Amino acid sequence: MYLKKYITAIAVLLLLIAVFVFSELFGQGNGDFTLRWGGFFSGGGRTESAEFKIKQSAIGGLAVGRSENDAYILTAGIGAPKASKRVNVRDVTIQCGKGRVFISVDNATGIAGIDVTLTYDAGLLEALNVKETEITSGFWLDKNLTKPGKVIISMAHSTGITSGTDVNLIEIVFQATSPVQSGTTTPLHFERILLYDEHSQKFPAIPQDGAATILPTLLGDVSGNGAVTAFDAALMLQAVVGLITLPSPAYPCFTIDIADVTGDGTLSALDAAYILQASVGLITLPISTASPAMVASNIGHPRFTIPNQSIQAGRQVNIPIQLSASEGVFAGELVLDYDSALLNAIKVTTPSKEPDCSLKSNLAKDEIKIAFAISKSEPNSDVIANVEFLVSPDVTAGTVIPLTMRQITINESHHLPIVVGHIEVLPKETQLLANYPNPFNPETWIPYQLAEPEDVKITIYNAAGQRVRQLDLGYKPAGVYLSKEKSAYWNGKNDLGEQVASGVYFYTLRAGDRVVSRKMSLLK
User: Fold this and answer.
1) Nearest to 384 by CA among 447, 269, 305
2) Residue 225 lies in a domain
3) Residue 293 belongs to some domain of the structure
4) Residues 217-233: pLDDT tens digits?
5) How far is CA 311 from CA 150, 281, 426, in A?
6) Which of 204, 222, 391, 416 is least surrounded, with the fewest CB atoms within 10 Å of its CB?
C-alpha cells in the first residue's frame, strides 16, 4: 500500500518537473492551478483525495507541503507571466571609418541578465569593442570578438534595472574594413537574444534587426558627410584664417590626408579652391599634375590694390580689395592691418556668390585674416572682398588712416609684395581756416575744408571792400586742404599783378551755397 503511494507521488512529481521544464523552455505560465487526484493516498484505514497544487511563483523550484486535510501539496515555481520586451539594433551611419551601434530595449524594467549574439558582414565591418551604457553601468560584462562577423555578449547584475523606456543597453564600436565609393548599407542581425530577471527567469524578447550605412572616406570631404561640397571648401578657409580648429567635435573625420588635396603637407586656400572646383564638377579628386592650376607658368602677374577712400568721422566706409591680372589665380590668403583705435572692423563680404567663390575672414584687433577660393579663374580684374569699417566719431577731420595688406600668398606658393592704401577722414562742414603765416610778407597760404565736393573760389578784399584778387580753385573734392601743397596760395599781388600795400585784408570762401570770410594782415 505504501509502495503504491510513493510510486504515485513520484509520478506526480515527475509530471510537475515536466511542466516546470516546459515553462522554462517557452518562458510562459498559465497562472496558479490545482490537480486533484483521488484514492492515491490513504492513512489510518481510510482513503482520501489528494490535492496537487501547482502554484506560479517568482522563484523557480518545487515545494512540498500539506493541505488542511493532511493531503500532500506540491508547488512548482514555474515563473510569473512576463510581458514581452522589444529589443532593437539601432541603425547607424559609419563616418570616418568608425561608428557606434546601440542595442536598445523598449522597457528595461527588471532586466538583470542579457545574452546577445549579433552577426554582421565581416567583409565590410569589424567589431572593435563592446561597452556598457549609462543604464547598464555596473553590470558584469563578458564579450567575444574573436569570431569574424559575430559579436557574442553576456551581461549580468545581482538586481534588475529599476526603470527605463526606450533605452540603450549595449554599445558596440565598429570600423569599416574596406573603403567604399558610395554609401553602402549592411544588415546587423540578432542570431540570439535572451533577457533575464534577477531570478534567472526569462523575459519573452522580440528582436528587431538593424543596419549600418557606411559612408565613403573621400579626399576633400572635410565635414565627413560622405560628399565633397562647397561647405568643405568653406570649412577649409575657416581653418586657414583661424576661425576654427580642425579636427573638432563637430567634424571628427578631419585629417590632413583628407584635406590636403595638393599633397604638400599643409592646409591652404588652394586646397579649398580644389575642393570647390570638385564640388561643381570642374575637376575630379585626386588632382593630377596636369591640372591647369597646378602649372606655375599658367599664373600671370596678379596684383592687389586698395583704393584710397574718404569718409566723415562716425560713418561706415567700404574698402574693396581688388585683384587684377588674375588669370590662373584660384586661391589666396592675406592679412589686412588697420588701426583699431580709429577704425572698427564690421564685416568682410565677397561680391561673388557660391559655388564660384568662397571667402572666409577672421576679424581681430588691428588685423583681418582673409582667405578665398575661386572655382573658375578669370583674366579680368575683380573685387575679391569688401571690407567694411566704421570710422570712430572722435577722429579729427583730415586724419589719414593707413591700411596695409601683407603676407599675400597666391595659389599656396606665390608671394606678393605689401600693398598700402588709406582712409581720409572728411570734415563734417565746409570751413575757411586761418591763413598762415599771419601777418605775412609778401605771400601766404589759405587753408580750407569741404564737406562736399564743390567749385571753390577765394576772393580777397581791401579794408574799403574793394576786390583785390580772386583765386579760382576749380572743382574740388570733399576734404581738408591744409598743407601748402593743397591750400590756396596768395602772393600778395592784385589781379593786375601789382604788389599790394601793407594793411588789413579780408578773404572770402565761396563753395556752393557756403560763403565764409576771415581777415589777415600784410605787414612790410
Assistant:
1) 305
2) no
3) no
4) 788 988 887 788 888 99
5) 73, 43, 5
6) 204
